[in-house]
């Protein structure tokens, strides 16, 4: 591509953000409310909720990788990625509604577990069908280091803005009464948006992938996985995308219960949610600017340090005002665990192409997406296992039929549960952020390394062009000079 072709149009960035925001709706709405919905509206025992999440997480490890590999091999008149958006969008919309459907209170626990496991797995398949394709499109559309950072920032802004919008809509529709019918109303609104967004991207995006003139034999799935496992850059960026979002998921999953039982002010969530997500939205351009001036790893060190310290401080919060202040501090760096790994993945795809001779965006994006889903799984499983062991009691106001004997007053929990909730929103997530920072420190693709790769590819392309002209006897045309951005290696850690 020429230098101009490396730049992405505003329309393309909007479409990339729109496609990724499908996952943003699920991560934001589901992240804040799904676990509480399972525990206090569906009235499923914490251990069974943990098993649901664990089953779906194991399914994700197979599902994401398979769909990623299949999308690499897809060849239709619509391209490789777009058909998955066409059919995955409506499937995801239907599955989203199914997972927020409340079964009758007297439904046996085993049957509830089966139903929500299948519904959750369906969401996983639909989400993968969309998410993997969006991750695979970015490295296909541009190879410019800073443009990828800029596009990733644009995408994360869109994901946060749309996710926040629908999380607020969900909060307003459901309120504090948590009526089953209100969850279905919210699900219908979100499902309609999912369908519209995916089909809009299908109609508006254009793929740039050009298949090689001589098809390269594709190895089996086990060989593909082995190649990925030998790529250190891919392993480190995947660890970042597993550990960082796990920290965010732990805090996000437990914040509603934390507000209700520890702060004894469930309504504060309606204020905390826009404060945290809104601050994250406003500070994304700042992190993009820092990344362009230094490196993506510097962004993670700065943002991760602030995020970890703010999370630790949550353990000591006991007032509404302190919660709001920490919400702002967390929001400042909340996007970093998502922004940096997403912007690094295209660099890894190119590094992988040099090693293997093939473009494998699909399977790498599939494995990468698996890490994010496993982070959600880890967050929910840890939450529910800890709550079960601590003695969590479902609220009698929504989970007790008339005539049943009440064990504990509504809207209160044993002291051990309250302490577990404090640890789950603060110190434990901070440890995962520290692990992600270690992976960022070890990530080998710096701006200087990327610039050297661009120079090698430009030289190889010029050499191939010259050889072709000499073979045909044509006079060589003046070759376009490809400008490689200057990178100060002293800025690379």
Automatic annotation (TrEMBL):
It is a multi-pass membrane protein. Gene3D superfamilies: MFS general substrate transporter like domains. The chain crosses the membrane at residues 83-101, 113-132, 153-174, 186-205, 233-256, 268-290, 299-317, 323-342, 363-387, 423-443. It is found in: Cell membrane. SUPFAM superfamilies: MFS general substrate transporter (SSF103473). Its main location: membrane. Signal peptide: none annotated. Keywords: Cell membrane, Membrane, Transmembrane, Transmembrane helix, Transport. InterPro entries: MFS_2, MFS_trans_sf, Na/Gal_symport_CS. Pfam families: MFS_2 (PF13347). Belongs to the major facilitator superfamily. PANTHER family: MAJOR FACILITATOR SUPERFAMILY (MFS) PROFILE DOMAIN-CONTAINING PROTEIN (PTHR11328:SF24), MAJOR FACILITATOR SUPERFAMILY DOMAIN-CONTAINING PROTEIN (PTHR11328). This is Major facilitator superfamily domain-containing protein 2B (HMfsd2b). It comes from Durusdinium trenchii.
């Amino acid at each position: 591509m020429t230098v101009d072709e490396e730049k992405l149009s505003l329309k393309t960035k909007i479409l990339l953000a729109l496609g990724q925001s499908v996952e943003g709706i699920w991560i934001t709405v589901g992240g804040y409310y799904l676990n509480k919905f399972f525990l206090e509206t569906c009235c499923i025992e914490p251990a069974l909720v943990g098993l649901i999440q664990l089953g779906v997480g194991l399914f994700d490890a197979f599902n994401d990788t398979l769909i990623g590999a299949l999308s690499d091999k897809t060849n239709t008149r619509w391209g490789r990625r777009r058909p998955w958006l066409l059919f995955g969008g409506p499937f995801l919309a239907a599955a989203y509604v199914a997972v927020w459907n409340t079964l009758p209170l007297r439904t046996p626990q085993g049957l509830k577990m089966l139903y929500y496991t299948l519904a959750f797995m369906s969401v996983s398949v639909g989400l993968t069908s969309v998410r993997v394709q969006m991750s695979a499109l970015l490295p296909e559309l541009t190879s410019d280091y800073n443009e990828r950072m800029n596009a990733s920032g644009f995408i994360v802004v869109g994901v946060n803005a749309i996710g926040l919008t629908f999380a607020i809509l969900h909060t307003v529709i459901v309120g504090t009464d948590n009526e089953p019918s209100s969850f279905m109303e919210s699900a219908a609104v979100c499902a309609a948006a999912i369908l519209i967004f995916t089909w809009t991207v299908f109609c508006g995006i254009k793929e740039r992938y050009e298949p090689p003139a001589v098809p390269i034999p594709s190895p089996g799935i086990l060989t593909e996985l082995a190649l990925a496992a030998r790529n250190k850059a891919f392993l480190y960026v995947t660890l970042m995308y597993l550990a960082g979002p796990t920290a965010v998921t732990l805090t996000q999953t437990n914040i509603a219960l934390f507000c209700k039982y520890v702060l004894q002010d469930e309504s504060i969530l309606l204020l905390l949610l826009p404060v945290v997500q809104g601050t994250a939205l406003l500070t994304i351009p700042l992190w993009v600017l820092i990344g362009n001036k230094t490196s993506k790893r510097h962004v993670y060190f700065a943002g991760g340090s602030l995020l970890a310290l703010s999370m630790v401080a949550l353990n000591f919060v006991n007032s509404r005002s302190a919660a709001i202040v920490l919400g702002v501090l967390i929001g400042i760096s909340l996007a970093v665990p998502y922004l940096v790994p997403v912007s690094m993945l295209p660099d890894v795809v190119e590094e992988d192409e040099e090693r293997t001779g093939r473009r494998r965006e699909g399977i790498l994006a599939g494995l990468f997406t698996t890490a994010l889903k496993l982070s959600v799984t880890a967050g929910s499983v840890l939450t529910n296992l800890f709550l079960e062991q601590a003695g969590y009691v479902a609220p009698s106001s929504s989970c007790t039929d008339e005539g049943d004997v009440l064990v504990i007053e509504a809207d209160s929990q044993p002291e051990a549960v309250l302490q577990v909730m404090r640890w789950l929103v603060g110190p434990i997530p901070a440890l995962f952020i520290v692990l992600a920072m270690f992976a960022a420190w070890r990530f080998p693709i710096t701006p200087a390394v990327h610039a050297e790769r661009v120079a090698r590819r430009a030289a190889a392309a010029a050499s191939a062009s010259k050889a072709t002209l000499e073979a045909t006897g044509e006079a060589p045309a003046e070759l376009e000079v490809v400008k490689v951005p200057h990178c100060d290696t002293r800025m690379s850690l």
